[in-house]
Amino acid sequence: MRGRLGSIRVRTTVAAVIVFSVAMSLASVAMVTVLTRSLTRQVATTAFSQADALAEEIELGIPLEDLVLGVSTDDEEFVQIVDDEGDVLASSPNVAGLSIIEPVRPGATVTVPARNPPDVEPLDEPFLLVGRDIRGAGDIEEVIVGRNLETVAEARATLTVALAFIMPLLLLVVGLVTWLVAARALSPVDAIRAEVDAISTRDLHRRVPDPPGDDEISRLAATMNRMLERLDAGQQRARRFVSDASHELRSPVAAIRQFAEVALAHPERTAVSELAEVVLEEDVRLQRLVEDLLLLTRIDEGTIPHPTGAVDLDDLLLEDAARLRATTDLKIDVHSVSAGRVIGDAEQLERLIRNLTDNAARHARGVVRLSLQEVGGRTILCVDDDGIGVDPAEREHVFQRFVRLDAARDRDSGGSGLGLSIVREVATFHGGAVRILDSDLGGTRFEVDLPGHPD
User: Fold this and answer.
1) Which distant-in-sequence residues (6+ apart) come within 8 Å of 324 by Cβ?
2) Which CATH number is 14-154 given?
3) Which residue ranges does the chain devote to CATH 1.10.287.130?
4) Which of 39, 133, 337, 377 is most solvent-facing, going by the fewest CB within 10 Å?
5) pLDDT per residue over 305-351, tens digit each?
6) Cα separation of 329 and 323, whole Å?
């Protein structure tokens, strides 16, 4: 129940009703106020017109007893003519014998509330009094005319009652319309929610309904579908990764087990040194694979701190060239290696260089060339070989994890398939990029572009 009451549809309807009720209340008050003032001005205008007419007759010299000051049965208005002392000199029959009802300055208006009990019949209702001064008529000072405000009160009451009946109906209509519009607008959201709720890790190929239009809900559906596509692709990559990693880990474990079983079955045919050599070799291979997997995982998770130290890439290149000369029969050309410094992690960059040079040595026929130069604030590192090269259609594919272009190669000669993936990840982590080009040696060139160190 709390969930339903807290739904967007309910909150939207309640908010619309509250806003409309406040707006209608303010509008109603304004309407009643404007109507009251307008009708009151009309009453005042009529009273001033009558007062002006009487004042003009008095100023023309017409005696007071000859003036028509109203009839005794007329309760809508009354007239009083007063002198400069405030004494009533003449009045309409309905207020005859009364003193001045209320002093009024000439040109002003005064509202007199109803008297209970009234002195005379007209004063049981509120009146509006206006004053008009008289010039040149001796001691006659002012004409006071009072007009009944009952019509104003009745109009105000009628409008108030009408609004009191209309407002609840309007609020009901607004609430119902808002509820229906919100339900229609949010129905795609309910469909999206139901679909997402039904999608499990086995159903990431499913997509949420894509409503027509280009509003927030359609953009939400498009975003959800793109997220599902990324999750689906990520899950497929994870499955392939787990499968390939399991296969890679199985190979050294199987090799160690095989040699151990042979040694146990035929101890007289197996030397301890031979078994230890095999175990050590497979253990080193297993350790490198685990380290590669851990590095890729840390990069994916973003747990590696951002490097801040300066690294001389030329020193790392020359050290790796010496390693290749000591472990291979290849010609290692370093004549194009010049000074190059970047901001980075020396261990990761050393791993990047070693993976590139090992890959080049694995495919080279006789020559591996290393080069390094700084161009326009960038540091360009290149590794060339004179091998068979890489088909342009496969150049992006080789950076994927556990990928070998030659599926027939054994794992000893082909590596684990993680080396070039690590190269790309490390280069990207350092704000750079790596690409494959044709080498002038006839084979492949791996070019790594890194931001240079600001000297």
Assistant:
1) 330, 332, 357, 361, 368
2) 3.30.450
3) 216-301
4) 377
5) 777 788 999 999 999 999 999 888 999 999 999 988 999 888 889 98
6) 11
